[in-house]
Structure formats: structure tokens, C-alpha cells
Specification:
extended, single chain, 217 residues, 6 helices, alpha+beta, two-stranded antiparallel ribbon, 2 domains
């Protein structure tokens, strides 16, 4: 079954704003692209830490333990503080202006990123940062932004358990798995090669029968 995905390439969210994320893959060394990827990475890290802390707190409280006496929980809180500090520092380059958006049956005011950046990447940078922060306001959306376990490119996961950006990466990863290698070797030995030998014999058998029929004629 073909894996579903959004590679953050031309994806359109429900607000009708295009996300220009193709440069993350195609132009990773551009300064504007690096800045947007920094914001993306820090947002995902902060969201991941928060989700882990909620789970830790739930388990600790269920067992009757004080969360503030848990070394791992307090260490995670410290990591959250550092991550948010780095994220705030990355966002200081952007100002925000309210923009009115309206379409049939809908009207809203949204904040749009403004940056002093100029050149061909300025518009993409503004729109990308603004889109990321809108996603951050929607519960569960940041957890869908992931790096592929095989090629390390960013993608938007349709399924909660999805680890790969596409079928090719999933197959490539499986091909490196020892269990997969053992199963494939058994298949090649027990099924594919015997079948191949049988198919190779068929032309010779057909040719032999043709010669015999000609000889009788």
C-alpha cells in the first residue's frame, strides 16, 4: 500500500496559505532556509519535550510520586527552558503585523511575519515562519512534522506511526534490516531461483519438441 505523506512541498493548509518548503530539500545552504529550518527544528523539539513531560507527569502521579523530585522530569523541564530560549532568540528577527483575511462565510485576523530580509527568499521566509507558528497553535500539528528515518528530510506525517517520507525510503530502510535480509535470502533460495531455473528450461524444452515434430514430418 502506498504511503501517504506531505513533504511540505506546496502543501496548502486550511487557511489557504501555501507553505513553500521545497527549499528545505533543494537549497539547504541558503541563509533564509537555514533560519526557517532552525525555527522548525526548535518548534518540533519544544513540542516533543512538552508531550514527553505530560506523559511523565501522568505516570509519576499515577504511582504517587512527586514530579518535582523526579530527576528526569526536572532535566526535561530544563531542556524545555533552553529550547524556548533559543526559539525566542530565533524569532526576534521577525516582527508581526495583523492582517485581515476574508472569504465566503469566514473572516479572521491573523498575524503575519515581517522581516528585514531582502531578495528572492524574503517572501518565502516570511510566509514559512508565519505558517509554522500557525501550525504550532493547532493541537497535535507539530507532532506531524518529522524527519524521515531514512533520508532525514522533513515531511508531514499523515499517520501517527509514520517514520518515512515515502515508499522508497521505507523499502530502502527495510533492505538494511537483518531480519529482512534473512527472509529475502530464503525467498531467493527457496522460491525465486528454482522458478528462474524452471523458466530457463522451458525454451530448451520447446525447441526440442519443435525439432522432434519437424523430424516426424
Amino acid at each position: 500500500m502506498k504511503a501517504q505523506k506531505h513533504t511540505l512541498r506546496g502543501k496548502v493548509d486550511e487557511d489557504g496559505v501555501e507553505e513553500f518548503f521545497a527549499p528545505l530539500r533543494e537549497h539547504p545552504n541558503k541563509p533564509a532556509v537555514k533560519r526557517v529550518e532552525t525555527v522548525l527544528t526548535l518548534l518540533v523539539e519544544a513540542d516533543t519535550l512538552a508531550r514527553e513531560q505530560r506523559e511523565q507527569k501522568r505516570l509519576l502521579e499515577r504511582s504517587g510520586k512527586d514530579v518535582h523530585r523526579s530527576g528526569s522530569f526536572m532535566e526535561s523541564l530544563g531542556a524545555s527552558t533552553r529550547t524556548c530560549g533559543l526559539l525566542n532568540a530565533a524569532l526576534t528577527r521577525y516582527g508581526w503585523v495583523p492582517v485581515a483575511q476574508g472569504r465566503a462565510g469566514k473572516f479572521c485576523i491573523v498575524d503575519r511575519a515581517v522581516t528585514t530580509s531582502t531578495g528572492q527568499w524574503a517572501y518565502w521566509e516570511r510566509m514559512s515562519v508565519g505558517t509554522l507558528l500557525r501550525l504550532a497553535r493547532k493541537p497535535g500539528e507539530l507532532s506531524r512534522l518529522r524527519r524521515c528515518s531514512e533520508c532525514c528530510q522533513w515531511f508531514y506525517a499523515i499517520r501517527a506511526h509514520q517514520q518515512f517520507c515515502g515508499v522508497s525510503c521505507r523499502r530502502r530502510h527495510q533492505a538494511q534490516n537483518q531480519e529482512f535480509k534473512v527472509k529475502r535470502a530464503a525467498y531467493m533460495r527457496e522460491q525465486y531461483r528454482p522458478l528462474l531455473k524452471e523458466l530457463q528450461k522451458r525454451p530448451l524444452t520447446f525447441l526440442k519438441r519443435t525439432r522432434q515434430s519437424k523430424g516426424k514430418g
